[in-house]
Fold this protein.
Amino acid sequence: MSWWVVVEEQRGAGDGRAWSLSETFPYDDQATAEAEAERLAREYQPVYPWSPKSRKVLRGAGGYLVIVEGRTSTFHFRLSVLEEI
């Protein structure tokens, strides 16, 4: 059994923004995956915005939603902790 932390983030500009699978990180156990997801929620550098000013981390069932405010725009990404079956 494997656990994964999956990073999905917004890419593009304006109406062309779309969700994209950015990174996947496999772990042997759920506890490690959850700890790494929390660390990544605070440290992961998303593609956009280019000049991050602030970050809000929201925790929910199965992962995190992170809102990153840049100088001119706001983007968000999510980290999910998932079990491979």
